[in-house]
Design a protein that fits this description.
Layout: E1 12-15, E2 18-21, H1 25-45, H2 55-73, H3 86-102, E3 110-111, H4 116-139, H5 146-169, E4 175-176
Antiparallel strand pairs: 1-2, 3-4
Pathway: Cofactor biosynthesis; adenosylcobalamin biosynthesis; adenosylcobalamin from cob(II)yrinate a,c-diamide: step 2/7
Keywords: ATP-binding, Cobalamin biosynthesis, Nucleotide-binding, Transferase
GO molecular function: ATP binding; corrinoid adenosyltransferase activity
Length: about 190
């Protein structure tokens, strides 16, 4: 099997249902999901099984789901069958709710960083936000699977939660943004 096809030598690429210019916003959207997938793989490669027995397999599953996002974004045929479903979003929300309880209480903005794994997960968070922004722009021009957009939104939040847990599990404190006021208040402290 050859890795090269030469079909992209004219500046166009094949999608599911047609061809588009390689600088088309739809191509940018699924390309950003692919970039994110590579960074998730990098984060996974740095994780020790003993410290991250739950997070590591979740991230590998997320890599598969990011391929699903890319597939849905690369589909331009009429009456498509999409892969990304509401249940994938619900799973991220449920996991975030658990991870929020594990991490120390958050009052101020934090800087991306801490332990190496946490820093990598913050990179994933920012790329997920970019993928979301590109999809928002794409939605202004064409229809997409709305579950992909919601998934990317939740995914960036998931990476934030997991990055904080990674620091906590490795006994590394989050670095608070020095000029941040208290912006997050615990519901427990309000009364």
């Amino acid at each position: 099997m050859r890795l090269y096809t030469k079909t992209g030598d004219t500046g166009k690429t094949s999608l599911i249902g047609g061809r588009r210019s390689k600088d088309n916003i739809r191509v940018e959207a699924y390309g950003t999901c692919d970039e994110l997938n590579a960074f998730v793989g990098r984060a996974v490669s740095l994780m020790e099984d003993e410290t991250f027995p739950d997070i590591k397999p979740e991230l590998i599953n997320i890599q598969h789901e990011l391929f699903d996002c890319g597939s849905d974004l690369a589909t331009i045929r009429k009456d498509p069958t999409y892969k990304v479903k509401e249940s994938m979003i619900t799973f991220l929300e449920e996991r975030m709710d658990e991870y929020i309880e594990e991490a120390p209480e958050l009052e101020r903005f934090i800087l991306p960083g801490g332990a190496t794994v946490a820093a990598e997960l913050h990179v994933c968070r920012t790329i997920a936000r970019r993928a979301e922004r590109v999809c928002a722009a794409l939605m202004q021009e064409e229809e997409i699977n709305q579950h992909v957009f919601k998934y990317l939104n939740r995914l960036s939040d998931y990476f934030f939660a997991v990055a904080r847990v990674a620091n906590a599990r490795q006994q590394v404190k989050d670095v608070e943004y020095e000029r941040s006021a208290i912006v997050f208040r615990s519901p427990k402290k309000r009364f």
